[in-house]
Amino acid sequence: MGVTDLYILYDVADSIATITLNRPEAANAQNGALLEELNDAWVKAAEDPEVKVIILRAEGKHFSAGHDLKPDPSTPTPAKITLEDIYNIEARRYLEFSLRWRNIPKPSIAAVQGRCIAGALLLCWPCDLIIAADDAKFSDPVVAMGIGGVEYHGHTWELGARKAKEILFTGRAVTAEEAEKVGMVNKVVPRADLDAETRALAAQIAVMPSFGLRQAKRAVNQTLDVQGFYAAIQSVFDIHETGHGNALSVSGFPVLVNLNQMKDTIKSVN
């Protein structure tokens, strides 16, 4: 199915496709191979006429620690990396993939536990519904890297303007309960019940007519797009890339990490 088929599990039963992040030893951090496999799984579910609902879940303690900042053997690195190189890679894997998953004409549910950090938001936010375990925490601490937020900038839409600014300015995590209050999360459940609750919701949706589900999803997504969602996501991605440009000019690397400001986040996924 994917580039290596190492990091993603895929299963279909009772009209429900379950896509599982399966890199728990690295807190499901996203290298290039994982994201390519994940996209293949989404496309497979979208094209399968037997699939009516898609679940995205993760093995291990954490949903995902975000982008893997270690060298990625699945992505060839030029001798001299440029902003254009970074832009092309991120436009595909972070922006285009997330928008594609968002617009798949089938309902999707993300089941989130533990930490959901930065790039992990690019995985759960494109889903139509989010069920969170009571230990889930959502954060985007990349301002500490000199970047204004992750590539798929759904913050304002998901959290509201002031809450979005708060988590970006401070780097702090939003708890599952806070996320439910602002409407980012549909339901908070005990960690032990996360898979069962998500599956039950998917089963409830799966009995509905496929065409009706498609039209309902399209109606809501298009309403958000008319309000400016799609244009904002596209334009803020370019703003995001200026952060990499600044880091390249300062240090010669695409990401300038302030480890002192990020130490609590880093410790939390160990």
- The CATH topology annotation reads as 2-enoyl-CoA Hydratase, Chain A, domain 1
Strand content: 5-15%
What value does the average pLDDT take?
Answer: 89
Q: What is the N-to-C order of secondary-structure elements (H for helix, E for strand)?
A: EEHEHEEHEEHHEHEHHHH
Number of strands: 9
Low-confidence stretches: 256-266
What is the radius of gyration? 18 Å
Main-sheet strand order equals 1-2-3-4-6-9
Number of helices: 10
Structural class: alpha/beta
Largest sheet: 6 strands, mixed
Helical content stands at: 40-55%
What would you call the quaternary organization?
single chain
CATH superfamily: 2-enoyl-CoA Hydratase, Chain A, domain 1
Going by CATH, the architecture would be Alpha-Beta Complex
**The CATH C-level class name:** Alpha Beta
**Overall domain count:** 1
How would you sum up the global shape?
globular
The end-to-end distance, rounded to whole angstroms, is: 30 Å
GO molecular function, one term: isomerase activity
Organism: Pseudofrankia inefficax (strain DSM 45817 / CECT 9037 / DDB 130130 / EuI1c)
Keywords: Isomerase
Protein name: Enoyl-CoA hydratase/isomerase
Report a brief summary of the structure.
Helix 2 (83-103) runs antiparallel to helix 9.
Protein topology:
Blueprint: E1 8-13, E2 16-21, H1 32-47, E3 53-58, H2 83-103, E4 108-112, E5 115-117, H3 121-124, E6 129-133, E7 137-139, H4 155-159, H5 161-170, E8 174-175, H6 176-181, E9 187-189, H7 194-206, H8 210-226, H9 229-251, H10 259-268
Parallel strand pairs: 2-3, 3-4, 4-6, 5-7, 6-9
Antiparallel strand pairs: 1-2, 7-8
